[in-house]
Write a structure and sequence with these properties.
There is one protein chain. With 311 residues, the chain is mainly β. It is 8% helix and 56% strand. The strands form two sheets. Strands 6, 7, 8, 9, 10, 11, 12, 13, 14, 15, 16, 17 and 18 form a 13-stranded antiparallel sheet that branches. A five-stranded mixed sheet has the order 1-2-3-4-5. Strand 17 (287-296) and strand 18 (302-309) form a beta hairpin.
């Protein structure tokens, strides 16, 4: 009841002979890590089970993503004084999802409509006589899930200030219009398929796959898209039937000691050129900082920095 009152969705729990299991979906906290921490605190306040493990399964659109397991090391662990750092995270579910997935879920996310407003700022420096060309717009969106793993997104872009981004950006027009389906296959293969209109004047289909290896610091991922050019003039869509295939495949390494992720990918871009991209990202509590370097056919080497801040 406390988890539901805090805003967590798809809450279930079951007390089995060998373990106690909870499921939650974080929609209450902007940072997933903070949401998980708050949920664990509530579970520990209620008392950890005696002489058996306690497992918390995190879902997204009711698709299980990862589990956190607490194994008592002494009888005192069952008295509400467990250490939050002793919860071990893993992509492995070890049969726990099969035990709990048919239990009644409280505060279901299905059929709920989420309303989001994205403030978007774009600026570029291409003209010698003007320092920056600037575009600022509000982009309200609605998101709704009609079944497990599915999400329908509709977005409208409302221009507030436009200096140099063209007449098309002066008009109210659609943004993302997509339907996506997330899924989890055996052997911890995670996937997402998306159909619709994306950003950067592209429409089409996109499929991404992710698989953590036995040593979960290492993972592989792949993505393939089949897209065409499309742009909005108000609410009228102009599109090109010439579709392009693009893809990427690569691996990741996560260094938990420094909360840093490294990735190396081979890619095929929209104009058909192939290349490679390296990226390193260091995650802090409320920000992530990193850099990237890439090289493609018929193009010079390129690189830059990435800054991501949770406001």
């Amino acid at each position: 009841e406390k988890l539901i009152d805090m805003g967590f969705e798809n809450v279930r729990w079951i007390d089995c002979e060998d373990e106690r299991i909870y499921t939650i979906e974080n929609s209450a906290y902007r940072l997933p890590s903070r949401g998980i921490k708050e949920a664990i605190s509530i579970i520990q306040e209620g008392g950890l089970p005696k002489n058996k493990t306690c497992k918390l399964i995190i879902t997204h659109l009711d698709i299980p993503q990862l589990s956190l397991t607490y194994t008592p090391s002494a009888s005192s662990d069952s008295i509400r004084n467990g250490n939050i750092h002793n919860w071990q995270a893993s992509y492995e579910l070890e049969g726990s999802w099969d035990k709990i997935k048919k239990e009644k879920k409280e505060n279901s996310s299905r059929y709920k409509v989420d309303i989001l407003v994205y403030p978007q700022l774009a600026f570029m420096n291409l003209i010698i006589t003007q320092i920056y060309q600037v575009l600022f717009q509000f982009s309200p969106a609605i998101e709704v899930s009609l079944w497990s793993g599915m999400k329908l997104t509709g977005q409208i872009k409302i221009p507030i200030y436009n200096d140099g981004y063209g007449m098309l950006e002066e008009k109210i027009h659609p943004g993302h219009l997509t339907i996506s389906q997330r899924f989890r296959l055996p052997h911890n293969i995670f996937g997402k398929a998306t159909l619709g209109y994306f950003n950067s004047d592209r429409y089409g289909v996109d499929l991404s796959l992710f698989h953590p290896l036995k040593d979960e610091r290492f993972s592989i991922e792949a993505r393939v898209g089949y897209v065409g050019i499309g742009y909005w003039n108000g609410f009228r869509l102009h599109y090109d039937n010439d579709m392009k295939l693009n893809w990427s495949i690569g691996g990741n390494f996560y260094w938990p000691q420094y909360n840093t992720q490294f990735s190396l990918k081979a890619q095929k871009f929209l104009l058909g050129e192939k290349g490679i991209k390296f990226e390193m990202i260091r995650h802090f509590k409320y920000a992530s900082i990193g850099f990237y370097a890439m090289k493609a056919e018929r193009a010079n080497s390129n690189g830059g920095f990435r800054f991501q801040v949770a406001l």
